[in-house]
Design brief:
Its cofactor is Mn(2+); Mg(2+). Pathway: Purine metabolism; IMP biosynthesis via de novo pathway; N(1)-(5-phospho-D-ribosyl)glycinamide from 5-phospho-alpha-D-ribose 1-diphosphate: step 2/2. One of its GO terms (molecular function) is ligase activity. The protein has 14 helices and 22 strands. A hairpin with a 5-residue loop joins strand 20 and strand 21. The protein is an alpha+beta fold. Strands 3-2-1-4-5 form a five-stranded parallel sheet, sandwiched between helices. Helix 1 packs parallel to helix 10 and helix 6 crosses helix 9. It folds into four domains: 91 residues, Rossmann fold; 60 residues, Dna Ligase, domain 1; 130 residues, ATP-grasp fold, B domain (D-amino Acid Aminotransferase, Chain A, domain 1, 2-Layer Sandwich), CATH 3.30.470.20; 94 residues, Alpha-Beta Complex (Glycinamide Ribonucleotide Synthetase, Chain A, domain 4).
Length: 436
């Protein structure tokens, strides 16, 4: 079996690592990949970038691949999965129409309403007057979301009405500007990836990520600064409840609308005082949650994704997980997320590898002299594992401590509250073991 993975981040490095380790996989090709991926797979550039469907199809045909896995959201929204399917190539990733679940928050809210999915109250706004009315109606903390793709950085949550209005104005100033104003959801957040072939839904293990740039959830939103799995504080039956009340109704409604969803539905949840509520849908694996979820997956990832791509998910084998926790910590470039400074030299990556930790590349490149340098805001992830969260955190941070990048920064509190058993679910403060 040959597999082509589209993308170049740490998420794709995690996907390639899992797929390449599968005995049934003969070869993995990554387009364009990154220096870390190049150590375990064949990488090649994509003419015109990953949103160029014709170029992706050409690469898939030239390598005679049996499966294409699309990592980032942009090529999905642009219809690259449609181009591949039109060429008869099994593809894991939704069509452009189905990818509207991430491409438009207003569309996602409509689907949730039609499917009866519990989520935050929301107002879709296209004018400043509508924004002001919505902010007053829902109150603070104010939640203002850009309707379109924003790489995880299009959301502002603030008690400052002027800051909320400023973000809204910036979003509305764009062509076809539209925003969603939501009620604030209390409670801890959970990420759950649900694999679907358009009909059957199989959940992966839940994870929690950290969006804010600084410790104690301070500073602006980012693409994600770290994650961990499993969630020892999650209520029993959470995964099954989310599948039955959220994922399946959404998948069913998409099929009813002739937009069958084939790929991974990323369900971002808040465990509120009124029960689980959807914060957002994404239509691809999340970064950095993928890094910890796949680190714990024992079952063949390639077979699972191929079954989804070919409509055979109801025949897929049961998933098995390592019980040991995994923690990932993201190293960011100086100035990230507002104005990342690129080009810094990276050192110590070989020393960072151990029996309990490894490095996944994200925004890295090699210059003409072969020196590894930062080329993106989020530069790399380290993944640590251990018998418990304390050991997993220690492994991840020990690995990060061996890596050098002048001015680089990372959060030092990933999974710290969970390690201290300090996460409370509103109206249900009982500590219970997660079912997964």
């Amino acid at each position: 079996m040959k597999v082509l993975v589209i993308g170049s981040g740490a998420r794709e490095h995690a996907l390639v690592k899992s797929i390449a380790a599968d005995p049934m996989v003969d070869a993995v090709i990554a387009a364009p990949g990154n220096p870390g991926i190049a150590q375990i797979a064949h990488c090649e550039p994509v003419d015109g970038g990953v949103t160029n469907g014709a170029a992706v199809v050409e690469i898939a045909r030239r390598h005679a691949v049996d499966l294409v896995v699309i990592g980032p959201e942009a090529p999905l929204v642009e219809g690259v999965a449609d181009d591949l399917r039109d060429a008869g190539i099994p593809t894991f990733g939704p069509s452009a129409r189905a990818a509207q679940l991430e491409g438009s928050k207003a569309f996602a809210k409509r689907i949730m309403a039609e499917a009866g999915v519990p989520t935050a109250l929301a107002h879709v706004c296209t004018t400043r007057a509508e924004v002001e009315e919505a902010l007053d109606a829902l109150g603070f903390p104010y939640v203002v979301k850009d309707d379109g793709l924003a790489a995880g950085k299009g959301v502002v949550v603030t008690d400052d009405r002027e800051a909320a209005l400023a973000h809204a104005d910036a979003c509305l100033a764009r062509p076809d500007g539209r925003i969603v104003i939501e009620e604030y959801l209390d409670g801890p957040e959970v990420s759950l990836f649900c694999i679907s072939d358009g009909r059957t839904v199989i959940p992966l293990a839940p994870a929690q990520d950290f969006k804010r740039v600084a410790d104690d959830d301070q500073g602006p939103n980012t693409g994600g600064m770290g994650a961990y799995s499993p969630l020892p504080w999650a209520p029993p039956g959470l995964v099954e409840d989310v599948v039955e009340r959220i994922a399946k109704p959404t998948i069913d409604q998409m099929r009813n609308l002739d937009m069958p969803f084939v790929g991974v539905l990323y369900v971002g949840l808040a465990l509120t005082s009124r029960g689980p509520r959807v914060v957002e849908f994404n239509v691809r694996f999340g970064d950095p949650e993928t890094q910890v979820v796949l680190d714990r997956l024992v079952t063949s990832l390639a077979e699972l994704l191929l079954a989804a791509a070919t409509g055979e998910l109801d025949h897929a084998e049961a998933l098995y997980w390592r019980h040991e926790p995994s923690v990932t910590v993201v190293l960011a470039a100086p100035g990230y997320p507002d104005a990342p400074e690129l080009g810094g030299e990276l050192t110590g990556l070989d020393d960072a590898e151990s029996d309990t930790a490894y490095v996944l590349h994200a925004g890295t490149t090699r210059d003409a002299d072969g020196v590894l340098r930062a080329s993106g805001g989020r530069v790399l992830s380290v993944v640590g594992s251990g018998a418990d969260l304390a050991e997993a955190r220690a492994a991840a941070y020990a690995s990060m401590g061996r890596i050098g990048l002048a001015g680089g920064h990372f959060r030092r509190d990933i999974a710290a509250r969970a390690e201290r058993d300090a996460i409370l679910i509103p109206a249900d403060h009982a500590r219970k073991d997660s079912p997964r």
